[in-house]
Amino acid sequence: MAMLQRQAVGLQAPKRSVLRAPISRTRAVSVRADGAQIQVDVDKPLGLKLDQSTATGGGLVVKAASGNAAKAGIKAGDTIIYTSSFFGDELWPADKLSFTNNAVANCPSPITLIYVPGENTKVNVKRLPKKPAPKRFGRKLTPAEKALASHICVDCGYIYCDSEPFEETAANYRCPQCNAPKRRFVAYNSDTGKTTGVAEGTAGTIATVVGGLLGIAVLAYLAASV
Asked: What's phi and psi for 225, nearest 5 deg?
């Protein structure tokens, strides 16, 4: 079970803290009761080389696993059956190699993967439904933290609660939770939970995703027309 790191916040000298404590990303986050499917969160770059599975159940077979994927316990020969969607808010069946690679490339880190150890002969991946992504965060701000909260990282949900004004932090400041650059933070109202402004790079990411979806649609149309 993932361990949550607690940070003490004093009233006299508040320390930096997070709204949502991160889960462990180095091993299984949850395992199904039957032990057949394993769910992990893996930081990018994943270190995975995938191919279309020819097994009965389908999915994407792991041809090679290194780096973060290997640390998460994924091995060559395992079969990926679910991955994070483009925006990370859903899990999508991993039944098509090109589509899955595109989704993973555009999804913010970490990527949630559900895999079957070895060859997949029991789960029909083509019939799997989309489902909500697991919640990664859950701890609420303390009153002292809430009074200092001013900005939030749009990539992982880290709340900046330092006594130093966010605008005065160094230009090379990075999110301590996901390592995103300073430009990925936007103003945050801890009373309403709403943000103000748009993080730099968001429009480009959306344009890339939309362009990718349009490209896939065109290819699908052309393939159907042949």
From this structure: -85, -15
